[in-house]
Amino acid sequence: MNETDKLKQLADRARLEPIPEVDVADRVMAAVSQPAPEPVPFERALVWGAAAAAACALIAVVAGWLSWNTWTDPMMAVFVDLMGDILT
Questions:
Q1: CA-based angle 68:53:66, to the nearest 5?
Q2: 70 CB-contact burial (10 Å; exposed 0-12 / middle 13-18 / buried 19+)
């Protein structure tokens, strides 16, 4: 008897076994319906730190974009200088 025949025999025997009935719906629904835990103060500090880092990153991106525009378009520097002279 080779391995293929042995596997076929085991598969035939497995098909004859009764299928066990498992009902986990109640346990799953109980776990899912629980309210989310209140965040600990350390998590709040991390959220505020991440928000501050995102704000700094936004400022850096805007400043970089403006610098890049000025560097790639020399006439933009002239207009920026003129606006500065007009406003002062």
A1: 15
A2: middle
| Chain centroid offset of residue 81 CA | 42
Domain with 30, as residue range(s), is: 3-87
Q: What is the C-alpha to C-alpha distance for residues 73 and 65, in angstroms, rounded to an integer?
A: 12
Compute the distance between CA of residue 75 and CA of residue 83 in angstroms, rounded to an integer.
12
Task: State how many domains the chain has.
Answer: 1
Give 4-60 pLDDT, tens digit per residue.
999 999 998 989 888 888 888 999 999 889 888 777 788 888 899 999 999 999 999
pTM (two decimals): 0.40
Terminal Cα distance for the chain, rounded: 97
Amino acid occupying residue 71: W
pLDDT of res. 80: 66
